[in-house]
Amino acid sequence: MAEVKRPPVGRRIFISSVAIEQLYEIAPGWDKYLLESLCIGRAGTKGAARCGDARLLAWTRSYAKGKAEP
Q1: What does the pLDDT look like over 5-52, one tens digit per residue?
Q2: Cα-based distances in Å from 39 to 15, 24, 25
Q3: pTM of this prediction?
Q4: For residue 52, what are the CA distances in angstroms to 18, 68, 70?
Q5: Of 4, 26, 55, 60, which residue is least crowded by CB atoms under 10 Å?
């Protein structure tokens, strides 16, 4: 399993329940909480996003594209 990196202390990443539910459409069969966790871990190495939902959905599209579900 991939190591989950945490964002810097004091920095919060907000992802709505609506975005989590949209993961079913983008990456059917994937564990939506694993995808969320991987994205948040990766976001810790990037600059702050204006919209956590948009970052999660875009990252998931890119990450899951062409890969078999785990």
Answers
A1: 655 555 677 888 999 899 989 998 999 988 888 888 887 667 677 788
A2: 11, 15, 17
A3: 0.69
A4: 12, 25, 24
A5: 4
